[in-house]
Amino acid sequence: MGKLVVLGGGESGVGAAILGKDKAFEVFLSDFSKLKPKFKEKLNSEDIQFEEGGHSISRLEAADVIVKSPGISDDLPVIKNLKNKGIKIISEIEFASWFTDANMIGITGSNGKTTVTNMVFHILKNAGLSVSMAGNVGFSFAEQVARKKVQNYVLELSSFQLDGIESFQPHIAILTSITPDHLDRYHNNFQEYIAAKFRITKNQTEDDYLIYNKDDEVIVNCLEQQPVKAQLIPFTMDTLVDDLSAFIEDNKINIKLNHNLFTMSVTDLAVKGDHNTRNAMAASTAARLLKIRKQTIRESMESFRGVEHRLEQLGKINKVTFINDSKATNINATFYALGSMNSPTVWIVGGVDKGNVYEDLLSLVNEKVKAIVCLGIDNQKIYEAFSNCVDTIVETSNMNDAVTKAYELTEENDTVLLSPACASFDLFENYEDRGRQFKNAVNHLKK
């Protein structure tokens, strides 16, 4: 099959290496950093050659195809040089899609994609389908294609993963929202980021479906300017009765697929808030396209309890509520979180700034936030944005300090909200690590 080089030895990279080995490629994995012990063990047990702590350029240049992990920027000199030599560089998602004929449901968006992915998976599993979750959640898509074999994949796809696709074609694509995010990686150009998200529908045909958020101006404008081949199914909080649409009427979700109508009361949803109603519409629409029974969809949406690290209620200490929203890695996600607060809030914020415009949060911070606890290496922008509307802003350098300080600033019936609006890489491994540390710190306070 030729020489496969995998750049990056995390979950997706090691999965791609295993699939490459199974498909008779000559595989070499290269990581500029140190590999985690669990991934090293895996590569050794699979007898896959690898290097860590640097790249052997000659071995990279000998590749027929390179699978690049999503965390590695296209702007790095090593990547540019390989591209200039005409070597095909793709993502793990693209590579895995070459070797499966399973039905693929691809989900992307600045916010909502993890929840929608979990919702779709929950419904399909309850319906008894052969299904697995992959992509930006769960285990590597490539490794699952190599070793698991299911008939349906529900794939959460980041813009970075979509950057590296060529022929990947989901039968159903879902676009939840597009707001400025990761602009540090897209040359501070919002149009580049939008184009990355829209790659999800690039290879779709008239036989495929694009379910999209009609309340999102960016998505609507883009569809007007660049028509797509897939059949379009909008979802909206307004009343809309197109032949293919999902909409709200009389506090009910209505999904109309030609002459077939599905309805469900919004009050029956286990997860609350307009954003979750939209998420439920998108997921339920995908399920209806797959001919899942209406009752199964209703029961699934009534039992779906939400996603860890997304507005996750951790209970109370002396009448102070703690909420873990570590998954809020951008301004728009934090906007949802602050908007859903119903009591005076001590807000824990900060991390690696991805080009944030904090001013978008000013009105909500004015209304909801009594104190700010910064949790990041560089908090200058947070101070500049909010020092005029919040009297108390304190800096901390680890999670235990942040939680202790936040609790000290509360009174009865207040809320402590971790909603960082930033990436986590300055102090944590990832947003899950940040969320777990928050939960541990809260539990420690309870003792």
Automatic annotation (TrEMBL):
GO biological process: cell division; cell wall organization; peptidoglycan biosynthetic process; regulation of cell shape
Domain of life: Bacteria
One function term, GO molecular function aspect: ATP binding
Binding site for ATP: G109, S110, N111, G112, K113, T114, T115
Catalytic activity: UDP-N-acetyl-alpha-D-muramoyl-L-alanine + D-glutamate + ATP = UDP-N-acetyl-alpha-D-muramoyl-L-alanyl-D-glutamate + ADP + phosphate + H(+)
Record's keyword annotation contains Membrane: no
GO CC entries: cytoplasm
Domain Mur ligase C-terminal: 309-422
Residues that span the membrane, as ranges: none
Key words, A-Z: ATP-binding, Cell cycle, Cell division, Cell shape, Cell wall biogenesis/degradation, Cytoplasm, Ligase, Nucleotide-binding, Peptidoglycan synthesis
Pathway listed: Cell wall biogenesis; peptidoglycan biosynthesis
Residues in Mur ligase central domain copies: 107-287
Protein name: UDP-N-acetylmuramoylalanine--D-glutamate ligase
Organism of provenance: Psychroflexus sediminis
Gene from which this protein is expressed: murD
